[in-house]
Amino acid sequence: MNARKVHRLCSGGSALRRSSLRTVVVMGLVCLLSACAPKPLQPTAERTAFWQGRLAVRILSEPVQYNAVAFELQGSAHQGTLTLLTPLGSTAAALRWSPGQAELQTQGQVQQFDSLQALLVQAVGTELPVAALFAWLAGENAAAPGWQADLQALPEGRLTARRASPAPVVELRVALEP
Prior knowledge:
By secondary structure, this protein is an alpha+beta fold. It has 3 helices and 9 strands; from the N terminus they run αββββββααβββ. The protein has a single domain (18-176), classed as outer membrane lipoprotein receptor (LolB), chain A (Clam). The protein has a 9-stranded antiparallel sheet with strand order 6-5-4-3-2-1-9-8-7.
């Protein structure tokens, strides 16, 4: 993966309501859950890496929710940044986290949280397997309760993951820029 190339597309909005915030963060979570690298990285406890591309998430709720976004993800499960981009290449939202804190910035507004997990629960309404996410990024088939990642297309820059439980079912797809 060429870390110098930057692909900038996404959807976002101005002052986000809770539902819009969920849409933006769900798009970012897709990135976390399903981003991948064409050549898996060597495993390390504190991996710092960079991924970019397009991702999509489908939540099989009533009504079904679907979002697609361009993203840039840098860091590790313990400390990093996730940037969601507009179709014109500007930043729609930025998530930043480090031990004991996380923040979501959208259109100049910043919301603070005690952890990335707390940010995700507040914004999306469910817990997500953050540590497993970064393992999947590195090509490691890490276990996460309720989730199953398909790493077979990882060498081609594609990854899918599915959460079967708890409901609702969540499907994630990522395509990386070469």
